[in-house]
Amino acid sequence: MLDLPTTPLKSLLNERLPGHSLPAPFYLSPGVFAADMEHIFAKHWIYVGVEPDVPEPGDVAIFDIGRYSIALVRDDDGEVRAFHNVCRHRGARLVTDEKTTVGNLVCRYHSWTYDLTGALIHADHMGPTFKRSCHGLKPVHIRSLEGLLFVCLADEPPADFDEMARRMGPYIAPHNVRNTKVAHQHDLIEPGNWKLTMENNRECYHCGTNHPELTVPLFAYGFGFAPEEMDEHDRAQAERYGCLVDTNHAAWEAAGLPSREIDELDTMVTGFRTERLPLDGDGESHTLDTKAACRKLLGDLPSAKLGGLSFWTQPNSWHHFLADHIVTFSVLPLDAERSLLRTKWLVHKDAVEGVDYDLDNLIGVWMATNQQDSDLVGLCQHGARSPAYQPGPYSPNTEMLVDKFVNWYCGRMAAHVGR
Length: 419
Hints:
By secondary structure, the chain is α+β, with helices and mostly antiparallel strands. The chain has nine helices and 17 strands. Helix 3 (30-41) packs across helix 9 (400-417) and helix 5 (194-201) packs across helix 8. The longest helix is centred in the C-terminal third of the chain and has 27 residues, at 359-385.
């Protein structure tokens, strides 16, 4: 890890040029990374998984946010809860497997036992004055957005989650996340700062020359373009795409599928954006032949040809909802120069692998794309280490969402440390 001179975070925030990438210490400095974990990941709503990660009572899933270990638990009443994965006796990690099923949560060290609501129900040899009710597991704030799970480590989480849920719920509900299963999960350690992973995701400027698989089902025009630089053929294609978006939005919304853009990426504490966009040609899904990867459609969706609903949240997630499957992505920082990208593919809970879907076909496009993006993130991380690095300007036509991510990040950091 590169050892940088200490620069006050306030000064670094003030150095940021609007419309430009961040000064190098934001991608390299262990001190900035520590501030990111304290002010961003410990004080905002963080996407961590889906309700189908813990489908039945007693199911437990563990994930880490920096130094925190969090246990997602489905209790006997079917409610999903979140707790700090730390025994209240002497601090031993309570659950060590990433996923497991339990009757109660039992610490292997001294057998302190907690029920699925987090209450301490057994602790030997603690004396007559010991009060079990004072030593339950520490809860973590958790909210489900139509089956997408978010946690917040702060004592008082941002209150605007309800606003996001109110506006996004109707978009996500038709895909019925709660009635899916995780067909596959892939964890990829990217060789770059978490902000570089997020910046890379927020644009498709690089897609045409780096993502041959992804650009089969996706229209390049859906992610920005510069009309003044186009020839007559490309302008005609862009106009055709614009008409296709308008026509499909009207049809989808008439059928009860909200589709039009909502963009609050840098205007809310819990920033988010969504839009349903058509796929190229006769496209149905994110596959190499653009056809549905799974024969069982989600929810009560009437057709496989319903475009792709994209949903982005600050600071660490993006999601693609198709008629036949869902792909969710979360970014969890590991250190100043490494990040964990976790991808999950969800299909109808009754879909059978090898009968209703072929796993390689289901995951192929995004497995290739994730690795390509990871390589690009690594190139940027290497570049940021160079003394020659200086923040470069974003394209106003294709990197608008990158700028909004960085605006959000700088605004939230400034809110906590000042300027």
